[in-house]
Amino acid sequence: MGRDKGLIKIDGGITIVEKIIGHLKDLFDEILIVTNDPSSYKKFGAKTVEDLMKNKGPLGGIFSGLCFSTSELNFVVGCDMPFIHPRLIEYILSKPEEYDIVIPEKNGRFESLFARYSKSALPALVSHLMSDELRIQDILKELHVLKITPEEAERFDPDHLSFFNINTREDLKKLRAYCHAHERFL
Question: How far is Cα 180 from Cα 178, in angstroms, rounded to an integer?
Fold first, then answer.
């Protein structure tokens, strides 16, 4: 996109990250924003932290968030996912604490930026980060993982909107069109 996706304004003048925080603040006592530009996010009222390992992509962000978090179990969401459904998050959080990761699967892919991570996953994350193996999918083989099936997710999010993210200008157009058609998302 060529810019910080979390700061993109959607209709109504609200940024994507504000939309996400609005959903999360009723679910969590602590909200962390992992960013390489904390000053841009301070105004949103969440704790902002910098990546501990730079240029390591989403895996580095997840690692940093787990390190800074005061909770053993943590829900991770990407900064470009404006349609997250709190009821689906609650369902994921309700799963037994024994799992290192509780993660939805859709079309054979894991939604690694809409998942619950335990601090127990940190050793595997560190190992992969140190060897520059940054695909989250690869780490899942080493951990105790509970997969949330598409059918389970559909009970709370029938259209799988929680997994919609903004990667291209076309995605941004889809987001704005959806917001216009469904005022409840503004």
Answer: 5
pLDDT, one tens digit per residue, over 141-180 is 999 999 999 999 999 999 898 998 888 888 878 777 777 6
Tokens representing 83 are: 């349609």
Question: Which pTM does this prediction carry?
Answer: 0.91
Question: How far is 46 from 143, CA to CA, in rounded Å?
Answer: 29
Give the right CATH number for 5-185 from 3.90.550.10, 3.30.160.20, 3.40.50.1170, 1.20.210.10: 3.90.550.10
What is the domain partition of the chain in residue ranges? Answer: 5-185
